[in-house]
Fold each of these.
Amino acid sequence: MEFIRIWKDVMVMRHPMAKYALFVILSIGYMGCSYTLPALVDSEPFLSYRLEMVDSNLNLVRVTGKVFGALDSKVPLRLPEKGNGRGLDPLGLKAFDMDGRPLDVKREGDFWTIENSGRDFTFSYEVVLTIEDRYAAEVRGMISLLEEDRGRIMGRDVFLIPAIRFGDGVTLDVSLGHEGPVHSTWECIDSRLIVPGVVDLATTLVVSGDYRVYETEVYGTRLTFAIAGKWSFSDDELFSVIRDVVSHEIGWFGSSTHKKHLFVCDTNPVKGGKGFDHYGVHFSGSILLLLDRRIDRSQIYDTPMSIVAHEFFHNWNGEAIRPASDGMMWFIEGATVYYSYRALTDINILTSLQYDMRMKLIRQRFMDNPYLESVSISSAANRDLSDKDMVNMLYDGGFLAAGIIDEKIAELSGGRKGLIDVIRYLRDSNPDGCLLDEDKLCEALIQVTGHDFKAFMGELVDTPAPLAIVSSEVSS
Ligand SMILES: [Zn+2]
């Protein structure tokens, strides 16, 4: 049960993130349209940031941005979407032209407009990265953490983002007062990293200071592992099992969605009460694992690997394939739960007996769900997700539905194909990203199996108490 409860917490965190990533992409696209773009393509504006520690006692960090290129007379800066935590609060925002002359800054709601008269400019502000109360639900979403010996920065906690179109490659220099290079999912050279695009800023995770860092390569993808502090397990024990899970999942697709993945293992600062002991989040190519220091050596195979298997699968199902609406969250989460279990079973972290027991538990909880007769699996994500039973309807139902679709595909193809082939098809046929709706899923199912799943799917996910699940429960 512990396993399930923790997993639920991880999933609840994940759901708003998927929407968040989508929001960033949509809002950048929208902003791009609402401001006149410069005519000269070869001088597309570019952007660089510098992050430096101003006062380590107050955890006060200064952010300086430089904006160059063919600019409009006014450039708006906007807040990044704040996830489900406390948002960024920029202190003392100022802007200057390149000769050091101050520029007017006007605030309108969540926008600060720089009156730069078409000139290049710099802007700077300060951010406090101290979290007074790690127990409060609202701060859980704040991922940044500064300690004397090390620092972790999450883009959305620090960056005000100019809402204009930029050329590729945002340089970021990080100087938090720690020795040694910084690490990120992006290319790093000493204390500098190159973030591929402005859309990637908010989800960029950077660590610096006292982390032990390991690297390996799987199917041409680099895996970087950064771990801090003392644990009951050795660094290599955890990293080798992460590598097994991750290489199994990359093996399903033949390649990863990123050139490099960063795994960060650190202490979970949220403890006790209704808090959770272990917690994982996935941003772009990074996975942050926050574990309880007291974790026993054998326990790394349990929750931490479930988090890794689940979050890593979201690289494909969740990031490369995104839900067109909340109505598809059952597939994003359900198929991800399903395949994270499969990965753990395939590499013998879970025995098939353990898998069967968990599956029965989930099916039983689905049957006992008070919304069984009134809410369909696909509509659960449109309802109140602060209600635990509704969350269970989404995840348990999504998981069971994914399993049934996988079985059906296997049955139709004489065991040669499965749902993974459909997910791979969706990824491969949409190299620029797939916005998934039910029609697109059915189309992919036809391509892979030659069969029309529309009616089957409607009965399974769009109808409360679907027979395919309810009747199979009776026989088990
Ligand atoms: Zn998830």
Amino acid sequence: MIIRKAILPDVEEMYELVNYYASKGQMLPRSRSALYENIRDFVVIETDGQIIGLGALHVYWNDLAELRTLAVKNGMERQGFGKQIVEFISKEAKELKVQKIFTLTYQPDFFKKLGFSVIDKASMPQKIWTDCINCPKFPNCNEICLEVNIN
Ligand SMILES: CC(C)(COP(=O)(O)OP(=O)(O)OC[C@H]1O[C@@H](n2cnc3c(N)ncnc32)[C@H](O)[C@@H]1OP(=O)(O)O)[C@@H](O)C(=O)NCCC(=O)NCCS
């Protein structure tokens, strides 16, 4: 098992993984174009040459970043892969001197286990809503916002 930064040849498998859950309404869809453009945000877990998990750190401001597009392949959950991705991303965020990571999710209990706390979405800066306005669920979204201080 290798956890590493994503590279361009990973995109097709990343696309399949994200859009599998997006088709079930569990996360936002991502186009191939969005994955290529943001490839440097992404971390992947690879086993036997297959991508089985991914997650992204997207920086917004001098102290704030989002952990997003986190997914572990169907059938591979609850084996610690999600946690490893969050830990890898948190380490990267620390190195960048990010102060706070937030996430928008339907899985708040997973993030609470990793030290995140629920906050009021409305308290987040407008800058973070770029993704939301392109989402079919906007403005009636029931994702929960959580954050963790890391530096
Ligand atoms: C949510 C998700 C990323 C979790 O990944 P995972 O690899 O299954 O999680 P882990 O095995 O690393 O779990 C870490 C801890 O959280 C717990 N946990 C995992 N999923 C959980 C959930 N949905 N609710 C509550 N606790 C959860 C685990 O039991 C484990 O607890 P422990 O340390 O006490 O044993 C994964 O289930 C997934 O990809 N879901 C579909 C996509 C999705 O909903 N993404 C969410 C972000 S948008």
